[in-house]
Each structure stands twice: as C-alpha cells, then as structure tokens.
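User: Please predict the structure of the protein below. I'd like the answer in structure-token form so I can feed it into my own downstream comparison script.

Assistant: Understood. Taking the following sequence of 244 residues as input:
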Amino acid sequence: MVIAIIAILAGMLLPALSKAKAKAQATKCLNNHKQMALAFLVYASDQDDRYICGTFAANAQLTTAPDVWFKLLLPYLGNNTNMYKCPAHFDNGTFYASLPYAVDYVVNSHIIRPSATALRTTQIDTPTAYLVATEDSRNMNNFNWSVSDFEWTRNHWHTGSTYGLGLTRHNNGAQAGMADGHAEYFKMPFRDPNSATPVTPDLGAIGDCMNGTPVWSNSVAAPKVFLRATSAGDAIGGNVNMGF
C-alpha cells in the first residue's frame, strides 16, 4: 500500500518537476539573451557607435578567425563561454568540430554583419522592433543568419533538418535578444517531420522586413519583430549590407 501511494505521488510530482525545470531553463536562456543584447550595445559604445562586424561565423573560420562575433563579444560577457549555452539544448551533447566551445545562439547578419562595414546603432530607428540574436543548434556550421538562412529554415521546417531546431527548445518556442537590449520569448510553428504533406509555415513572430515586399509573409498574425528595415536589393542572395 505504501509503495503504491509513493508511486501515485511520484506520478503526480514528476510532471510538475519537469515543468519547473523547463521554466528554469527558459529563464536562464532568456537571461543569456538579455546579457548578450546589452553586451552588443556596450561593445558599440566602445567602438564609435558601431556594432560588431567581422568574419562570417561558419565552417573553419569558427576556430581560425579572431573576429567572428562570439569571440569579439566574449570580453563583454566576462569571458564566460557558458553565456552561449542554452540549458535546454537537446543536441547530442557535442558541437560542430570547428567551434572552440559550444554556441547555441545565432545572430542576425543584417545587424551583426559578417563584413568589414559595421552597422551603427543610430541607423536602427526602432530598436525594439529588430532581432539581434536568437537560438541555433550547436551542431550547425553557421552562426550568422541572414534573411536567406531564415527563409531556408522556413522551407525546411518539417524535413527533419537541424536548421531551426533550436527555435523550438522552449515549449516549441525561442528566446531572442533585441536591438534595444531587452529579450523576450516567441512561439514558433509546430515542427512535424513525419507529416506526408507538411504546409510551409511562416516564422511565427519573426518577420523579414518592416518596409517593402518581404520574402515570406506572416499569414497567421502580423510579425512582432523584424530582421531588417527594407527589402531593397537582393533579398535572398546573401547581401547582408542592405536593409538599413
């Protein structure tokens, strides 16, 4: 009888404990994004109002290049690489071979540019409306996403690709840091890799551009945040120096 009662109580408590753990992980991840968003602004204040720019954070450059974004930002995070780890990550525990340490987050290349030309903070007229960083899989080889990367992720949402997997870590949603220094949570479309005829979704609250014709349209609701200001130029060709 006692064992049966204990089993019943355990069955009642475990779901609550699981929810509490997930909530704690989401809170820690949200704080990581908050600290990163603020660190980007502090970096800019030290660099003549210019955001981080440098080498494209992908492939071998992740190890060899000293000016990928997460290396330049690290001193502004107290050199604590744990700030780049989401406690809710569900990768297989390893990370891409060229990463010097685990990185679970990706930056918006239209703001944190992989180029020699840095964006100024004053070029963003509505900082609350633009995403600076959000969640990625540490197994991926690309930690700078432009519109074309988000569009590829959208088109492969249901194919089992690890692109976009990190965007569903927190109750099918993602944390994100914004250009004004705050962070918030966004619900994302449900991923169904087993669907025979999956419908290509929009990206939930994340929109392409505030002005112009976007690459994708948010059909369910108007986007809450954007990647760039305009759709001028080659929208999906990887040109990250346009849009602001």
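That's the full token string. Residues 2-230 form one domain.
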